[in-house]
Amino acid sequence: MIDTLILDSKHTWHPYNSLPSKTKILPVKETYAQTIVLEDGTKLVDGMSSWWSAIHGYNHPVLVEALKQQADIMPHIMFGGLTHRPAVELCKKLSDLTGLESIFLADSGSVSVEVALKTAILYNKAKGKNVDKFIALNHSYHGDTLGCMGVCDPVNSMHSLYGEYLNKNIFCDVEDLEETITKHKDELAGVIVEPIVQGAGGMKIHSPSYLKIARELCSFYDIPLIADEIATGFGHTGLMWGCDHANIKPDIMTVGKSLTGGIMTLAAMLTSKHISDAISNSDIGVLMHGPTFMGNPLACSVANASIDLLLSSPWQERVKNIEKTFKKDLEVLKEHPLVEDVRSIGAIGVVELKSDTFAQKLQDSCVKEGVWLRPFGRLLYSIVAYTITEDELKKITSAMKKAVYNL
Ligand SMILES: Cc1ncc(COP(=O)(O)O)c(C=O)c1O
User: Fold this and answer.
1) 152 and 301 share a domain?
2) Does residue 141 carry a catalytic annotation?
3) What is the mean predicted confidence (pLDDT) over 356-361?
């Protein structure tokens, strides 16, 4: 049998990478709970929860069982003109959890953001407004498809690579949101934000006031407010939704990542009945989008099981304890000369360095300590499963500290 890494280097393109990969790739054999087992038997405590998704840890028996049961009944069926129990139950659950009644199931986070942007444009059109500009925040990240890239941070993202191909939107800092919305109100199709935590664009944590301001102004000018909760949702910031920190309800929301507890790809665009009615009852009449694997029954069944599992667990207490440990254990790094900032919220712990040259070195050091982390740019960060044990979390925070001290 050809070695996995050799085969990998011939044909397999990894995210944000060259082919063959310019950075180290580790072959994984299996996973369980908060453990990743490499092909050579090395066990790593997982500090990434597979990019914010595996909130219940890996291979949770309840989720695996839901998948198996649905696989026997109906692994997939087209959603055009047909419906099924797992999808309608999921939409009901999401509606109950958010207060947004109208749900469009999508197959990845980026696709749900595309659908959110399209929904906002169609809502405006239905109201007789031909507008197509969005306000997005500096340091935002909303996905990698072309529409999404058009609302990602213009400097620190991929705008320079795709240039003219991307939509020209309006960007501002959180502090300037009020002024920017007011100035551009007549050309806006929507305002899109990551609530409370900006993830892949810089792991920035904000106070809730910008969400309140955005809500107030968007309501006043009848501009759809889009909250991208793909990363923050399902409890990552300590509350179910990032928007809950400001006690606001967006007009459009996107969820993904931990929607299925991290074992299937699935996302959703949620909106108010006001918006879905405006589109449905206008001359436009329909939301023009329809992925082949929309509402995949396997993914919907797992998502239903994951939401039930989350709601029946003491997740808030668990996330609070994780936050406490991150705060207490990482605090000491604030004094380190190479460290710019240390911050944490909910299940997220972040160490921001002064330089972006250390990512691979930091990762190597953590792996040596038996911990899987994937630093990027100036950020050494961890987002953990809510089921992580105190010992596992301590192993992660001490690996983070050691990695910084070893620089
Ligand atoms: C806030 C946010 N929006 C959208 C996305 C895109 O989701 P996906 O990678 O599933 O396409 C991500 C992914 O990291 C995200 O963090």
Assistant:
1) yes
2) yes
3) 95
Where helices occur in 281-354 by DSSP H, the ranges are 297-311, 315-330
Contacts with 42 (C-beta within 8 Å, 6 or more apart), sequence order: 370
The HSE-up count of residue 323 (CA atoms within 13 Å, CB side) is: 14
221 is catalytic: no
The domain total for the chain is 2
Q: Which atom of ligand 1 is nearest to the CA of 229?
A: 1
Token reading at 361: 């070195």
pLDDT tens-digit map of 18-50? 999 989 999 999 999 999 999 999 999 999 999
> Taking all residues of the chain, what is their mean pLDDT, rounded to a whole number?
97
Q: Whose CA is nearest to atom 2 of ligand 1?
A: 142
Residue 256 alpha carbon to ligand 1 centre in Å: 7
The answer to whether residues 382 and 283 belong to one domain is no
The domain that holds 184 is classified in CATH as: 3.40.640.10
Q: Which atom of ligand 1 is nearest to the CA of 111?
A: 11
Q: Whose CA is nearest to atom 8 of ligand 1?
A: 109
Are 203 and 333 part of one and the same domain?
no
Contact 9, 21 (CB under 8 A): yes
The structure's pTM equals 0.98
231 ligand 1 Cβ < 6 A: yes
End-to-end CA distance of the chain: give it in Å, rounded.
38
Same domain, 96 and 144: yes
Region 250-261: mean pLDDT is 98
Query: What are phi and psi for residue 351, nearest 5 degrees?
Result: -120, 115
The three-class DSSP label of residue 209 is: helix
d(C-alpha 17, C-alpha 14), whole Å: 5
- In this structure, the answer to whether residues 97 and 159 fall within a common structural domain is yes
Q: Is 228 in the pocket of ligand 1 (CB under 6 A)?
A: yes
257 is catalytic: yes
- Co-location of 116 and 203 in the same domain: yes
Q: Atom 3 of ligand 1 has which residue's CA nearest to it?
A: 142
Residue 139's domain comprises 61-311
Mutation probe of ligand 1 site: the residue of 50, 110, 226, 376 with most atoms within 8 A of C-beta: 110
Distance 230 CA to ligand 1 centre (A): 6
Same domain, 18 and 33: yes
Number of residues that make up the chain: 407
Check if 190 has its Cβ closer than 6 Å to any atom of ligand 1.
Answer: no
Indicate whether 158 pLDDT > 80: no
pLDDT at 106 (0 to 100): 98
Strands 252-255 and 267-271: antiparallel
Our answer to whether residue 210 is catalytic in this structure is no
